[in-house]
Amino acid sequence: MLKIENLKVKIGDREVLHGIDLQINDGETHVLMGPNGSGKSTLLMTIMGFGNYEITDGRIIYNGRDITHMPIHDRAKMGIGMLFQRPPTISGLKLGKLLSAVSGGKTGDIPAFARTVNMENFLERDINKGFSGGEIKRSEVLQLMVQRPDFVMIDEPESGVDLENIALMGNSIAQLLQKDQHIVNRQKSGLIITHTGHILNYIEADFGHVMIDGQIRCHGNPREILSVIKEKGYKECLACQQI
Ligand code: ADP
Ligand code: MG
Ligand code: MG
């Protein structure tokens, strides 16, 4: 589904990603860990196609097509979706209106999705305006549910979310990654950034990777990697290629 080859990315005049290789096959969910500032969000923003991220080398292949320089809305149309770590507030745009716009005409499903994440009373409110941390995240998950991406990227779903909302987020994200019952052979894949690893209690993650200083330094079983990090810290990942 997604293949990244030797990806180098600059923000301003500083190189943040120094040659990333990553392959995510149909139906796989991968987890990305690593210290703050190592470049995890940068990788997701670059895959999504945001403008501040200048690709100086390498390429991104999605479902066999080179999307390295494709505009963000075309990537979204091809089925790439993202949940941000710090989503913006959008004054003057109602959540319900945005959901209708991204639903691909399937507006009838919106109320049921909204109920799943307890957001049915938020559809007439401006996006994220005055929302609590948990409400912002639930609103973002709802947008993804309605958009139905095939490749789902999620940046730190646990950050700023209390325990009750983590369960709701975790279960909703698991639902997002489930195969679409109505469309044969439509496998969904995911790339999820996590610090705490809480999300691993809710989803089936196939592979874990650790990013340090703009390079992926370690691959393996996500739970094993997490327990090594918790016991010995990220420095242990510098020595490892495979756990
Ligand atoms: P992570 O998500 O792993 O915490 P980021 O990808 O957010 O790391 O950041 C990687 C590096 O790039 C950090 O040093 C950060 O300060 C820098 N960076 C990220 N976004 C910007 C930006 N918009 N302008 C300048 N530097 C940025
Ligand atoms: Mg961070
Ligand atoms: Mg980040």
Automatic annotation (TrEMBL):
SMART domains tied to this protein: AAA (SM00382)
Annotated InterPro entries: AAA+_ATPase, ABC_transporter-like_ATP-bd, FeS-cluster_ATPase_SufC, P-loop_NTPase
Keyword ATP-binding: yes
One Gene Ontology molecular-function label: ATP binding
UniProt keywords, alphabetically: ATP-binding, Nucleotide-binding
Annotated AAA+ ATPase domain residues: 26-223
Superkingdom: Archaea
Official protein name in the record: ABC transporter ATP-binding protein
